[in-house]
Design goal:
With 134 residues, the protein is mostly helical. 81% of the residues lie in helices and 0% in strands. The protein is built from 6 helices and no strands. Helix 2 crosses helix 3. The radius of gyration is 23 Å and the shape is elongated. It starts with 6 loop residues before the first helix and ends with a helix. 10% of the residues are buried.
Length: 134
């Protein structure tokens, strides 16, 4: 069997070249960065809203925090108690979370456009608003 003339090897080689040309790993890294960054504002928003709902929910959250190491538990407890009922923190964390999740959608749009060789013609502001809506 001649390896150089094998159609399967040629297909795999062409796929690898296209995979590299479209910067698939770079786009995946960009999306994972934005997803990881969006996690923190949403966790803060979850804690703040949960403490506003009821004291039982607050007690449940603090019992979950008790599984962390003692120093980290104290820092997180103090941080969450300072956020309790703070409207600016709620708005800021919701805004940051929506902004970063919109960045994930923009990266996904860029990846799909690149994979299908489509030139983006829409304006950035329109794309950003649509991405934040999604």
């Amino acid at each position: 069997m001649n390896i150089k003339n094998n159609r399967f090897i040629k297909l795999i080689w062409a796929y690898c070249r296209r995979f590299d040309k479209q910067d698939t790993f770079g786009l995946a890294a960009e999306m994972s960065f934005y997803l990881f960054t969006a996690l923190f504002p949403f966790v803060i928003l979850l804690f703040v809203i949960a403490t506003l709902i009821s004291t039982a929910m607050q007690d449940m959250l603090f019992s979950l925090i008790s599984y962390l190491p003692r120093d980290m538990e104290n820092v997180i407890t103090e941080l969450l108690m300072s956020f309790k009922g703070s409207l600016p923190i709620i708005l800021l964390s919701a805004g940051l979370g929506i902004w970063y999740m919109g960045s994930v959608i923009l990266t996904l749009t860029k990846a799909i456009n690149r994979f299908y060789a489509i030139k983006e013609t829409r304006r950035y502001i329109r794309l950003r608003i649509r991405a934040m809506f999604f």
